[in-house]
Amino acid sequence: MIEIKDTLQNKLPIITFNDVTFSWPGKTDHVVNNCNFSINKKGLWMIVGKNGSGKSTLLKLINGLLKPSNGVINNLADVGMVFQNPDHQILMPNCRSELLLNINQKLSRKDITTKINTVLNKVGLAGFENRPIHSLSGGQKQRLTIACSLISDKNFLLLDEPTALLDSSSQLKVLEIIKDLTNNKRNPLTALWITHRLEELSYADAVAEMKNGNLSDWYKPLNFKYN
Ligand SMILES: Nc1ncnc2c1ncn2[C@@H]1O[C@H](COP(=O)(O)OP(=O)(O)O)[C@@H](O)[C@H]1O
Ligand SMILES: [Mg+2]
């Protein structure tokens, strides 16, 4: 029993920032300034902040696209990204080929088919395997990018304003799918969701504000006050 528990604990996605500072080359101001926080539980974590406050930069530091100028980032998660505009992310002409691009190619044909069906189901796109990308709505494309992270076995999703370009019904659908995935009892995903839509915060397990290069403490949505 103890062994199983330890294995599970090792798999807990944990991200920690210790005194992390980052400046863009050629700029003197610190976009991220002595930032400390950690994400040490599964669930849906949300960050809000004004335009230019450094939210996207923070995500790029977490996924290793950028290196801090100072401080230490620990990342034990397998991180997948979902950007604001799915057209900047999707490369292939249809859903199946896009998913195949992200899957472990060593799997058998049978396992690949099973996995494709499973992830499409999870994002509410059952039966969409052979649909051309151009026939998908913005929300459906966004759900496909989530399926691509799932099929590559990511356990931690970084979503950078994923609903900014969506109409309100697609927005809600994407949010509910992520909420379900993070609530899944057997194999929960952890998600860090950046938003400027305050109405989305009520779905979060924890909310923080990015301001002056720093992330605030984490709050329950009901206790969170946006300054
Ligand atoms: N590639 C880049 N090169 C130089 N400066 C950048 C780059 N990307 C963002 N910045 C600057 O970093 C600051 C934070 O940007 P960003 O992280 O995109 O904020 P947010 O996502 O909160 O709107 C802004 O001042 C922006 O101009
Ligand atoms: Mg941004």
Number of helices: 6
Task: Please give the CATH class.
Answer: Alpha Beta
Number of domain units: 1
User: What overall form do the CA principal axes indicate?
Assistant: globular
**End-to-end distance, in Å?**
46 Å
DSSP helix fraction: 25-40%
CATH topology value: Rossmann fold
Order of helices and strands: HEEEHEEHHHEHEEE
Judged by helices, strands and strand pairing, the structural class is alpha/beta
Q: Percent of residues in beta strands?
A: 15-25%
Query: How would you describe the oligomerization state of the chains in this entry?
Result: single chain
Whole-angstrom Rg = 18 Å
Instruction: Give the strand tally.
Output: 9
Return residue spans where pLDDT drops below 50 for at least 5 consecutive residues. Answer: 1-9
Q: Compute the average pLDDT.
A: 93
State the fourth-level CATH superfamily: P-loop containing nucleotide triphosphate hydrolases
Bound molecules: adenosine-5'-diphosphate, magnesium ion
Main sheet attributes: strand count, strand direction, barrel closure: 6 strands, mixed
The CATH architecture term is 3-Layer(aba) Sandwich
Please state how the strands of the largest beta sheet are arranged side by side: 5-6-7-3-8-9
